[in-house]
Amino acid sequence: MSEGKKLRLVDLSLPIRNASFDTQEQHIEYTDHLEMGRLRAKAYGIQPDDLPLPGVHAAMERVTLSTHAGTHMDAPIHYGPTSEGKPAKTIDQIPLDWCYGDGVVLDFSWMEAGRVIGVDDLKEALKKIDYQLKPGDIVLIRTDRWRDFDKVDWVMRHPGMGRESTLWLIEQGIRMMGTDGWGWDIPIPTMAEALKNGDKAAFFPGHYAGRDKEYCHVEKMARLNELPTHGFKVGIFPILIERASGGWCRPVAFVEE
């Protein structure tokens, strides 16, 4: 950090919660201190009042969770079994140096739901902020749709990336990218309708680009609107889940002020 400057940390994640409007499975079972006191007393063969704080033990939760619920990182194996002709990486194989770098925010908060962000859109957004991408940058697609987290149709409110735009970012040396929309591609029902009408290329084109070029993206981020367009660091480290196609993460931006 530069001398004399303060560091502001910005949480770029959304919470896991019960009754979420996310379509990915997530359920939290809470056990409070008194319940745990009784459960542990039974397990240890003692009376609850024998505990150091009578009747009270450490609270605990049990979570049932899809690896793609909440703010999470997709590994290349999520997109298909191979990437660049080799076995695709699982989340526990993602290089850590992909997960920390200079952040770049491209603003598409003005774009309507269901629209595909193209290469020209990316180039125009970069031109507006006078920035040239370099290998190792972490590109964040700002839609501001994280604000709709508690709307029942949250999953339908975001624009998304396409095949060509995703490949173009990878070709600039970008291995890690993310969005504060529900998904990387446009809403699934919209893509599914196009598929039913015979347009196979319209079905998860951004995801499936990872079969040809290796990359990761993070979905369901938040508060990208609180960041400068560039000139900050971002860390996005996934939970280490063996052989998994995705992993939960808590992205954090480090902004000098």
UniProtKB/TrEMBL annotation:
<dbReference type="InterPro" id="IPR007325">
    <property type="entry name" value="KFase/CYL"/>
</dbReference>
<dbReference type="InterPro" id="IPR037175">
    <property type="entry name" value="KFase_sf"/>
</dbReference>
<protein>
    <submittedName>
        <fullName>Cyclase family protein</fullName>
    </submittedName>
</protein>
<dbReference type="Pfam" id="PF04199">
    <property type="entry name" value="Cyclase"/>
</dbReference>
